[in-house]
Amino acid sequence: MSRRSEILAEMGLSPIWRVRSSPGSAPAEKMESAVGWTELKQAVPACKACSLHQSRTQTVFGVGDENADWLLVGEAPGAEEDRLGDPFVGQAGKLLDNMLAAIGLSRRENVYIANVLKCRPPGNRNPEPDEVAKCTPFLRVQIDLIRPKLIVAMGRFAAQTLLNTDATIASLRGRVHAYAGVPLIVTYHPAYLLRNLPDKSKAWADLVFATKTMASLS
Ligand code: URA
Predict the structure, then answer these.
(1) What is the pTM of this model?
(2) N or C, which end of the chain has less CB nearby within 10 Å?
(3) Dihedral sign of CA atoms 28, 135, 66, 183 in order
(4) What distance in angstroms lies between residue 194's CA and the mean position of ligand 1's atoms?
């Protein structure tokens, strides 16, 4: 079974997957080519795999260039993201946009932004392990479709989920890791930086490191 097939099988949530898996339909290996952005964008808003669907206003799929070299991964939508349907549109998002601008990037061009969770945890609590487990297949398909050159995991949940580790951000920074063969760099979450201003200089160092790493890949 190919990696995409494995991911999709794991999703088990996708109506497309279920419909096409019905008796008499195309075999699974053929089906995977049918699951692209369109199907994923239908599957995410329809998802009821965890209890977060009960409290969400809407799912927050992700935003940006679907062929981007840069993929930034955050944790989960907050109140503003839940209201507007786009990731990082609140205070943390403004900081993220400024950080991107400082390295000559914008969320509209060559950058894609997604979260580990597509639904807002009530009261902005931390994601629960079962929510992460149920939602991560969506992110994995997004990564598979984007095929970025570099992933920047922002914060503990993104880093630990994508690297399958419980190591701290501090111990993961400053090195190039890999997610499914894609280079991955870890930095602090913008919301954390809003509360811990002295660590902004460390995040800046991470972005400079990421820029140099990207240049070495091109
Ligand atoms: N924090 C995140 O991790 N993601 C968002 O989209 C907004 C805030």
Answers:
(1) 0.87
(2) C
(3) negative
(4) 13
